[in-house]
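ok so heres the complex, two chains, lmk if somethin looks off
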Amino acid sequence: MDTVQRLDSDSIIANGSGHEQYLTFMLAGEEYGVDILRVQEIKGWDSATRIPNTPDYVQGVINLRGTIVPIIDLRMRFNLEKLEYGPTTVVVVLKVESENKHRTMGIVVDGVSDVYSISADELKSAPEFGDDVNAEFVKGLATIDEKMVIMLNIDKLLNSRELSVLDSAANER
Amino acid sequence: MSIDLSQFKQTFIEESLEGLDIMESTLLNLDVGEADLEAINTIFRAAHSIKGGSGTFGFNDIASFTHVLETLLDQTRAGERDVTTPAIELLLASVDCLREMINALQDEGATYDEEQVASVQEKLEIMLNGDKESSTENTAEAGSTATDENSPTTASGWLIKFAPHPDMLRTGNDPVLMFRELEGLGSLEVSVDTEALPNFESLLAEDAYLSWEVRLTADVAKGQIEEIFSWVDDECELEITALISESTAAEEEHVVEPEPQAVNTDVKTTPEKKAAPAATKKVAKKRSTSTEATSIRVGTDKVDALINLVGELVITQSMLSQLGEEFDMSKIEKLRNGLAQLERNTREMQENVLRIRMLPISFSFNRFPRLVHDLTQKMGKKVDLKMSGEQTELDKTVMEKIGDPLVHLVRNALDHGIESPEERIAAGKDPVGTLLLNAYHKGGNIIIEISDDGAGINKQRVLEKAVENGIINSPDDISDDAQVFDLIFAAGFSTADVVSDVSGRGVGMDVVKKNIKALGGGIEITSQEGKGSTFSIRLPLTLAILDGQLVRVGEEVYIIPLISIVESLQIDKKAVNRLAGRSEVYRLRDDYISIIRLYNLFGAKPDSVDLEKGLLVVVEGDGQKVGLFVDDLLGQQQVVIKSLESNFKQVEGVSGATILGDGTVALIMDIGGLIDLSNTLQRDSSDGAVA
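and the predicted structre for the whole thing:
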């Protein structure tokens, strides 16, 4: 509860300056970013308990200080080549808003990169990508030091398809 | 120093609801014509605290409603009024109204049926005014709220001199609240005497310096005014003198609406003004969304026990840490003892923490006297409701979820079970039927029984109806009594010939069974024609913890709830057969059970696919026995159930997850879901084979 409140007050400050901070990470040579206020923690990869009959990109669930947190492999989610988990492989634990409730989820990425402060008008809207990376998941593209950084909309990304809360409601017997 | 009243609002709501429960149950026990003073006093006290509380919080509609109710009760208490059936019914109706009003407070934006409230209030006032002439001044106040508008000329009044002692405010009494109550009686003219007010430097914020003179223009009894001040009568100088009736039109003009803020500018902070609880527009009755209370009251004994345990835990911890500092192998025995003690402490602690969530089942039972009272009146039956084991404790969550199924079963027992008095006499029974609600512990379960001495279940009729509704093909399909009774729980089943608003729509029993199953319990029926029926519900004591059997499939560990395991055995190849060359069945004594290979279902890599190398765990779920093929059985242990849904979603065949001793997560199997999953899989694969 405390952390949430603290983060909320941070967000007011961030919005006040018109800049938003993004945590970026590497995934198959590309740099992706997520709103830093949604990041709960970054931890090393540790084995997860597989959940049967879920898509491949759901790595399983881990015990995060007593809470059961699902882990999504972002490479597999984007249909990228599977990489063996190594020492730099990290899990970024995110707070996701879904259907009026908060969920905590982790994403497996190749490695954490940097934190950038980007104003809203620096974010360019993305062109259509096709199916694998739905444009919906992309909040915008930013150029930092001549490099392109893809800013993700994690709420959309982690609520799509089989991850949706609604999906489970429909399955309720 | 501002006091935020909102933090007490929830307490007020809870206390009021409790008060209403007390009123209701006492009212139901009240005998017509006989004024049991103690009972009436209890009702009066409950009404009085609700009135006081609602006044404090500024819920004026509740306060004024309760005021009329209180007046009526006061007269009854004084013996001026007889306890009659219409009076009791009216009081019960007012309890309902109040409950609705208070529930509306709890839900932001919720509203109550104002017309309903107004009509009940009007009825109360009519009852009060009905014998106004015959009664003395006590009843004169009856329609105070109504009369002061309609006939101001008759209003005489009172001059109230109110001078609080300096330390009155420290006892938590606020003059504003008293004035607000006075305002409820009639129009006020207030003048304040600030003479005692010291210089600012010597002013103590917590002392009362002001005194007031209040002219109350209302036709009320002196006692009523005294009552408002009754909390402070030894902390103030109070003088109440009658005003000669001089309420001319000229005087009326002088009457000023007292402004609560005005009087207490220097004295004390204003209680935060609450918005009127209800919206003004009338909205169709909306079901309260927060019927599930969010806080619980815990007995101090339970808290004390916990504190003691924490104390022991601290001692054990310090002993262990001391041991750890200078450890050598000679102390290994000591360490073992310490660890054993820690284990015991932890277990006791766990039990005690769980006990906090336990509430006596009377919370759930208490609504039944009212329900039975209302329904029997409607149906013209006579029923004596008996309850036992009300002190049996049950997890709060389980209790909340079992409420509706219980109501349904009680309704059914009244409607289908117990016959009308005429039929009962004809059958040579006591015209008054008996409905027994009983609760007790048995093993790790709680059993709730609902028994009636009514007609019992007509098996022939059940069978006929089941055929009629297409649930079974022919009555010969089923021979066993238990199976016949099970038909009652089938969806779309109803034996009632006439659909009433009480029961007979054929929805319900299946939902009852489903709800109970969802709680991990079960329901059984025993019935004898002509003698009555008993529905017994078995529920787990808690939803938070279960006894689990750890099983291994390859690298993965799963947990099977111990309660659903029938037996575990090594597979004898000779007993394995294949049905239509596909699904495997195992002959277990006289039964054939299908084998579910867990690795297939869960897509795991097993040690071996050879049935003889693994074990078969026979489990029962949804009334069906199946054998789960696993690699190995590990230990048995109590596991704390964690939700998968809170961060992920529901997964078929899995009811939740838990954290094992080594910190890893293990999934808990949902046997019913597992069987469904296996059936779907089989169907899909056979469809695929055909195509």
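quick notes: The CA atoms of residues 619 and 625 of chain B lie 6 Å apart. thats all i got rn
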